[in-house]
Amino acid sequence: MKYFHLFIASMLAIYLLLPLASAQSESTCIYLFYGEGCPHCGRVVPFVSELEGEYDIEVKHFEIYNNWDNAALLNSYFDAYNVPLRGRGVPVIFVGNGFLVGDTPILSKLEPILEKGIYAGEPCPSTEVKNPVNLLYVGINNGAEPGEGTVSGLEPEEISLGVITIAAFVDSINPCAIAVLLILLNALLAAGDKNTVLKVGLAFIASIYISYFLFGLGLFSAIQIAGLSYIFYQLVGFLAIIIGLFNIKDYLWYGGGGFVMEIPRSWRPTLKKLLKSITTPLGAFSMGFAVCLFELPCTGGPYIFILGLLAEKSTQMIAIPLLLYYNFIFILPLLGIVALLYYGFTNIEKAEKWKERNLRLLHLIAGILMLALGFWALSGVLL
Known about the structure:
This protein is an alpha/beta fold. It has 2 domains: 21-142, Glutaredoxin, CATH 3.40.30; 161-382, no CATH class. The chain has 13 helices and 5 strands. It has helices at residues 2-25, 39-54, 68-80, 103-116, 161-172, 175-191, 194-225, 229-252, 268-276, 281-313, 316-342, 348-357, 359-382; strands at residues 28-34, 57-63, 92-95, 98-101, 133-134. A 5-stranded mixed β-sheet has the order 2-1-3-4-5, sandwiched between helices. A hairpin with a 2-residue loop joins strand 3 and strand 4 (98-101). Helix 5 runs antiparallel to helix 13. The radius of gyration is 28 Å and the shape is elongated.
């Protein structure tokens, strides 16, 4: 009888503890990749921490901005899950065979997935995943299961390449950058050495490209770290409209109001003196960084417009190639001028006359395009 009672007690204990053991084995394993200082990540990390207290989940955190091993691991997961290149960034969550990129998808989709227990008890995410699915496009709330979605492209809010191209084009036709390059090459052409002109011109343009990229990346990071991305996003539309109106003013009333959307006249003698002292590619490369300080007041408007959009709509991993692309468009006219001068299709005098003859037209084109971008940005904020 004693053994019978022991048997009954044992069976009762197993019966009571079995659901607990089962529940523990049914936990959901989640990999969360994020970056320190990323405002979008700042919304997701505490949200996931709250879910850890409400659901049976195991979350493994991977910070990528300060840990290159984690960054490399993230790229391995992106490749394994077939995440499109332009859709990659942080925050990102991998769970089972699914992934979510961006704060809005994670905040809206993760909890319904946990409520349904879709990935409960499954192994942790693997770089050998089969049939990966973008959970952003799965109707979790409507009962659709993972696998019915598609590994699709970008988040709906991502900034378009067309907008970046237009803004970069506006920046590239600004008379400031063209005028600076012509001043630099004028003295060199007088010496008659075309090879030196080519080398100095390319070195100067390379330093402009690098310095503008670094400036943009630095400002982009500062905006996000300071948590000002949404404020900048709200203001960039108004900024673009103001820049557009000022450029149109320079077409209708050049110099009116005591200013033009170009390098301030008081700075020009100093700038000319600096540029005329350059005789070597190394000197030109070094001078390019200093010249950016002169150019930014008149060329920085479209750039800041794009940086404001990128800071709110993208992550650093997405922004870097877009900034590289923007600055390549920006320097294209400068490369064209160097090529035309080198191959003898034009000279400094003709180039100067062309610039002066079309100066107001360039301002008009820039003004109209910036107005269009400004109203486009405001429509995205207001609607």
